[in-house]
Design goal:
single chain; alpha+beta; 2 domains; 16% strand
């Protein structure tokens, strides 16, 4: 019962039903306080008339295409990208102009994360080339991957949905060093669990 939508007359009637005395001349807020105090003292429960909307939660099916991005293909693409960035760096040194170097392409960074998950975290079910997420694991669900090569801010798509997010610290990638940070958001609490894998 929502006491705040009741009139003073209705509140006085509730007071009488609950054997609350001295209600004459009391305003609405005082009557509500008296009712709430009495209910708490008597351990009674007033259930408010709040509409409850029950929605069917859709089951999202993740289409997993056969993961053909092998470890050998990853090594090949990584070397190709590193060579390109190295050549760009050499060119900019020759001409004396600084340019912004490209980030690691998402297929490379996501598959580095996948290989770390498979080989260091022992989740062999992590798979790439999913239609609705970066990676998908039968153990963890949707795995989001964020790679950064500088101290600048990361960006997120507002519609991103994931069960766990992996941050690939690639600030030393040119020296072949990566640090994987895992953050799992527990949906029932605002607690964030962090773990680092080197």
């Amino acid at each position: 019962m929502n006491l705040f939508i009741k009139s003073v007359s209705e509140l006085k009637l509730i007071c009488k039903e609950n054997n609350i005395k001295n209600i004459s001349g009391k305003n609405k807020q005082t009557l509500i306080n008296l009712i709430q105090d009495k209910v708490i003292i008597q351990d009674k429960v007033i259930i408010q008339d709040i509409p409850i909307i029950i929605q069917d939660i859709p089951i999202i099916k993740i289409d997993i295409i056969k993961d053909t991005y092998t470890e050998d293909l990853l090594k090949e693409q990584y070397i190709l990208h590193k060579t390109y960035v190295n050549e760009r760096t050499n060119t900019t040194k020759k001409i004396g102009v600084k340019v912004r170097l490209p980030c690691i392409p998402e297929d490379i960074s996501e598959n580095i994360v996948k290989q770390i998950i498979r080989n260091k975290l022992n989740d062999k079910t992590s798979s790439w080339d999913c239609k609705k997420c970066d990676l998908y694991s039968q153990k963890e669900g949707k795995q989001e991957c964020k790679c950064f090569t500088s101290d600048g801010p990361l960006s997120f798509t507002p519609s991103s949905e994931w069960d766990i997010i992996y941050f690939l610290d690639a600030r030393l990638w040119f020296n072949n060093k990566f640090i994987l940070e895992v953050e799992k958001v527990l949906l029932s609490t605002p607690l964030i669990v962090k773990k680092k894998v080197k």
